[in-house]
Design goal:
The complex is a heterodimer of chains A (537) and B (94). By secondary structure, chain A is mostly helical. Chain A has one domain: Cytochrome c oxidase-like, subunit I domain (Cytochrome C Oxidase, Chain A). Chain A is 66% helix and 1% strand. Chain B has 94 residues and is mostly helical. Chain B has one domain. Classes of the chains: A mainly alpha (537), B mainly alpha (94). Bound molecules: copper (II) ion.
Chain lengths: 537, 94
Amino acid sequence: MTHNTVDKIEYVSFLEHKGKYKGLFSWIFATDHKRIALLYLYAIATFFFVGAILGLLMRLELIAPGETIMKPQTYNGIFTVHGIIMIFMVVIPGLSAVFGNFFLPILIGAKDVAFPKLNLFSWWVFIFGSVLAVASQFMKDGPPDTGWTFYAPYSTATGTNVIMATTAAFVLGFSSILTGLNFLVTIHQMRAPGMKFFNMPLFPWAIYATAWIQLLATPIIGITLLMLIAERLFGIGFFDPNLGGDPILFQHLFWIYSHPAVYVMILPAMGVITEIIPTFCQRRVYGYKAIALSSVAIAGVGFLVWGHHMYTSGMSNQARWFFSLLTFVVAVPSAIKVFNWLSTMYKGSIDLKPPFLYAVSFIFLFIIGGTTGLLLGSVATNVQVHDTAFIVAHFHYIIFGGMGFAFFAAIHYWLPKMYGKMYNFKRANIAWAIIFVGFNLLYFPQFILGFQGMPRRYFDYLPQFQTGEVISSIGGFILVSGLILMVYNLVMGVRKGEPSPANPWNGSTLEWQIPSPPSIENFDEAPVIKKNPYDYN
Amino acid sequence: MANNSSHITDYKVLTRVLLVLMFLTFLTISVTSYNLAAFTVTIALLIAGVKSFLVLSYFMHLKYESLLLRILVSIVFVLFALIVLITFIDYSYR
Ligand SMILES: [Cu+2]
């Protein structure tokens, strides 16, 4: 790498780089981690809007008691499809496939991930799985009506397209495993000279913990879904009590994956927030090691708490006691992170730019989601609110208020780096305000409805719940209009925005030391790392 | 990528491991003729555990890899054992 000092070739970013192919093919056959990240971004954004529209349809149905715009069976199909799309195609891949792909190699000073071709293959597998999932909605037997959890024995008996939907989830799981494997090897093998594990920025740490979960937990859901398919096709008797099976075994196997999967969603989100807060406070992150290791602790303990989804399913009392205890234990590392973020802000010179607004609202919403989670982790209160709207509210506060807001924070933070353009701040702030208000109006009433006994996944309700349901539906429309404004602003920024300097936020991590957008190789010379990534003072 | 030199295992060792694996497979099948009640699953998992240990160490060369790699793989097995154990907190008290 000596030639660049002699004849300075004109700078070419990864967006303009000419590779083997031209036009569309230069994207869908790209092995550059940044192009693959953008491929994921466009696919996931599209799926997100499909899922959001399905959510709005549900809110329309629930705006008044009785049948409003659809039949009950359609409603069952819609909440199932909403769940499958949002969980398996949006939030699980979301942050790690988009921002992990784009920024993990840059943040550790690498040129690319360890296996670029495998990375492209993961994207193709993801698209193939997504096509299967969407197709399962239109095949002749009708969309699956089991909920995204596919609980047996109903899922072994219903006549809808369960096999196709579970095959889709199985295929999507492969994409997740391959991405996780790729990132693990990248972090172990590709770090820049001098970058020890404890010199890595904290987003790579979060991605590292996430990648372990993806690699180890996802095969379990794969096998479980295959068992379900085998049960349907051959009547083996794994889960169906009529054949001597145990339906609770399905719930065990399902949640052994699906609880850790929640951390696949939220750990990278926490990583993003940990990058944003020091930048906009211009302060060294407080408790670097505690944040790094708490990601690993969450990943580890998170594997052992799945039973808190099954308190009312007929599990043994001893198991309930055990899972409840461990659930409270796993809350500790999450709380450590929250305290560290707040301590980082303390006495910092806070700059209320759009990424920071989203990051702070992440903390706010995550605390609401987290504390209501403790209420669910305790067996006695769980029995009261299990399978009510309370669960729906808690879940959306964690996943949308957490992962969703972190995703928005990340896109506002890194968009100038990814495209070399800046969006309009004023419009971004207005969109944030609308989204924040809409979000709380949509989900907060569901906590109250749940306490009053409104069941989840119901197409109809008693008149006493109408006020809450109407407020919630209005919130849904406000939220979606805010989202549209936000996306419009970002797209306008990319297309017509002012060119962005290399380091618009005065950040200290490696991605801000290279031009925007980065070149195909990220770095002219491999950077040599000598210090902690968050050196502001 | 410092230690990329691959270790070459003696055929004799590999054959011996293969024989042990076949014996263990035979054992797995033959114990099913005894009624071990609650221990049926435990025994089957224990034998399977020994077998995968052998495959990983000899056929997949883990025995000759770096300590870090061996630790990482062991953690996976500990985690798997924990998950099975915890599941049985439910089954053995129900
Ligand atoms: Cu859980």
